[in-house]
Design brief:
- The structure is a single chain.
- By secondary structure, the chain is mainly alpha-helical.
- It has a domain of 319 residues: Orthogonal Bundle (Hydantoin permease).
- 68% of the residues lie in helices and 0% in strands.
- It has 21 helices and no strands.
- The two termini are 24 Å apart.
Length: 471
């Protein structure tokens, strides 16, 4: 349904972390499909997907099966977070105050902000390499700056422009990756395309985990891009459009990376393999991926800025952040990331993937707590006024039940971890497969539900009728 807000919504977003009132709501649920489909047709998921055959030595069939299983499972969690947006009308990280308290939520907000700054920095490196691949005369450092500026402009303009670009990108990038698949399959350059690698349980589980964690990594900011939808949008519609878009787009990219690597000689860099495997259309593919990474990276900058604003506003609670504040913080983060990326090592992206795996250990129990709290305990009903109070209002500064479940959720993952910093004994016993995320979800979810239902103070608040999802 087209509303007045839909037609009159300003191109430059005026809201930051504040509640989006009904008169400013606009858009349709199908925008979520195009956002998450188009946004996932990009170099970073292609590079990540190739790891299943490069690092974990799976063959094509088992690599594809692992990729699909991981995205199908992880996409459920990601889409459940997305469905919170229209109901709450506020960014995901500010909403965490309702589960952890105004101060208790700071750790998760900080971790999310660091992770998305890492995503942004990695993507501008990929943008710089892609631009250098298209135009040899453009040095990688110059390409990094150009890519960062492009993403910065999109991120500063904000929500509506991000959606518009991804509606266009869905058709262009979707057609491009189908064309790329067609070319590779008809110009395979290796005799062992179907036979290189084999099934091994540790590699298969590791690839499933990579795909699932790719989806979970979106959880701290996915509802930021659905919060402007009208509040009466069905939860199921928000869930399914997000789920189908993110699973389809990311699965295609992951599989494309695996196919490109297997179609070229062993040992090639993934993006070099893509360029070689796509032959005469390689330059076109690189141009499309360059545009994609610039567009998609705006989401990482946007999410990082909202996380930073949330951190600052926790202490400067009288501060009302504006579009100007968002622009200034965007420029600061952009400049810092450019400086870091230009001086980074050649294996910057590899180091980034290592960092994400470590950070996700502490984000997984947050995902479990947030979803259980929203769907099983509060059932979507929150006091928005309290969320923005310095003392947390009815949610307080700290929620002991959430913090206890969170700490235990991190602790139980340690034996199952496999990161550059630490390999747990159970992970080592099963040949390095990292199942920490699955254990974290399975333990934290019922534990938090049990602890929250034992909280008599919460029950009194719930029965008092104070919890109202309104302003």
């Amino acid at each position: 349904m087209v509303t007045a807000a839909t037609t009159s919504a300003p191109l430059i977003e005026k809201h930051t972390i504040g509640y989006v009132p009904p008169e400013d709501r606009h858009g349709k649920t199908r925008d979520l499909f195009t956002l998450w489909f188009g946004g996932n047709i990009a170099p970073l998921p292609i590079v990540t997907g190739a790891l299943g055959v490069q690092m974990f030595h799976l063959n094509l069939v088992w690599g594809i099966v692992a990729i699909l299983v991981g995205h199908l499972v992880g996409g459920v969690l990601m889409a459940l977070h997305s469905a919170q947006g229209p109901q709450m009308g506020i960014p995901q990280m500010i909403q965490s105050r309702a589960q952890f308290g105004s101060l208790g939520a700071l750790l998760v907000v900080l971790i999310a902000g660091i992770m998305y700054i890492g995503f942004f920095a990695s993507n501008i490196v990929l943008a710089g390499k892609s631009l250098h691949g298209v135009v040899d005369s453009v040095p990688v450092p110059v390409g990094i700056v150009i890519g960062a500026l492009g993403s910065g402009i999109i991120g500063i303009i904000g929500y509506r422009f991000i959606h518009v670009l991804n509606r266009i990108g869905t058709w262009v990038l979707g057609a491009g990756i189908v064309l790329g698949f067609g070319y590779i399959f008809t110009h395979v350059q290796t005799a062992d395309f179907l036979t290189r690698g084999s099934f091994n349980i540790s590699g298969w589980l590791a690839t499933v985990s990579l795909a699932a964690l790719w989806q979970i990594a979106f959880a701290p900011y996915v509802s930021d891009y659905s919060r402007y939808l009208p509040a009466n949008v069905p939860v199921a519609a928000t869930f399914w459009t997000t789920y189908l878009g993110t699973v389809l787009g990311s699965s295609l990219s992951f599989i494309f990376g695996a196919v490109a690597v297997l179609a070229t000689p062993v040992g090639m860099d993934t993006m070099d393999a893509v360029k070689l495997a796509t032959g005469s259309i390689g330059p076109l593919m690189l141009v499309l991926f360059l545009l994609s990474v610039i567009s998609h990276n705006a989401l990482n900058l946007y999410g990082a800025v909202l996380s930073l604003i949330t951190l600052i506003q926790t202490f400067a609670y009288r501060w009302i952040p504006t579009a100007k504040s968002r622009a200034i913080l965007s420029i600061i983060i952009l400049a810092a990331c450019c400086f870091a990326a230009v001086g980074a090592s050649a294996n910057f992206i590899g180091h980034f993937v290592d960092m994400v795996l470590v950070l996700l250990v502490v984000l997984v129990p947050w995902t479990a707590i947030n979803l259980i709290d929203f769907y099983a305990i509060h059932k979507g009903q929150y006091d928005i006024h309290s969320i923005f109070k310095v003392d947390g209002g009815i949610y307080g500064r700290y929620n002991p039940q959430a913090l206890l479940a969170y700490a235990i959720g991190i602790a139980v993952q340690i034996p199952f971890m496999n990161t550059p910093l630490y390999v747990g004994p159970i992970s080592e016993h099963i040949n390095g497969a990292d199942l920490s995320w699955l254990v974290g979800l399975l333990i934290t979810s019922p534990l938090y539900y049990w602890l929250a239902n034992r909280d008599t103070a919460y029950k009194r608040r719930l029965c008092s009728g104070k919890l109202a999802n309104s302003i």
